Amino acid sequence: MAVPSSTEKKVYLLTQSDPTAIVIHCSDPRFQNAFKGFINSELGLRDGDYIPLIISGGAGSLSEPLKLPKEFKFMKERIEFFIHHFPSIRRIILINHEDCKHYESMKNLLGNSFLSRVADLMERQKIDLKSVAKNLLNLFGSKIHGELYYAHFTDPQKQSVVFEKIFA
Q: Which among 97, 93, 105 has a CA at the least distance from the CA of 64?
């Protein structure tokens, strides 16, 4: 293959697809490779098959509509837009992960009420997955179904994860 000259532009191909899912996960750079591998290998979704919504805290950005209304509104409007413009979408996949810095910051911002009725952040994240999924499914009806996952570290050095399916 010839090397493009300084005046030539490299051409990139687009994916022609009707996405069947929206995948919402955290933007933590430590987890991106694991998320991508899990989405491709375990969920069977390739690029173009899904719309990635990658934002700090993942589902956490939808978990506090009254205390963090701007985050909730932003995410809700994006999801509504995609569902409206891509009628092929049937799944919303939510993924949270251990050692989430966004959840730590939410705990610090919202204080003691953030962890009331839960033992720790991991439990809070799993409860949030369930409540966010329930709220989204109520908004978008029976044509959409939710899938929930939580990424756990497998080693003390925090170098690899496994994904646990969370049942609503």
A: 105
Q: Which CATH code for domain 21-166?
A: 3.40.1050.10
Q: Under a CB-based contact definition with an 8 Å cutoff, are residues 54 and 22 in contact? A: no
Contact by Cβ (8 Å): 135, 141? no
If 0-12 CB within 10 Å is exposed, 13-18 middle and 19+ buried, where does residue 149 land?
buried
Of 92, 80, 99, 84, the closest CA to residue 43 belongs to: 92
Give residue limits of the domains in the chain: 21-166
Bridge partner list, 92: 22, 146
pLDDT, residue 67, reads 81
0.70 exceeded by pTM: yes
Residue with structure tokens 């899904």?
50
Q: Reduce the DSSP state of residue 10 to 3 states and report it.
A: coil
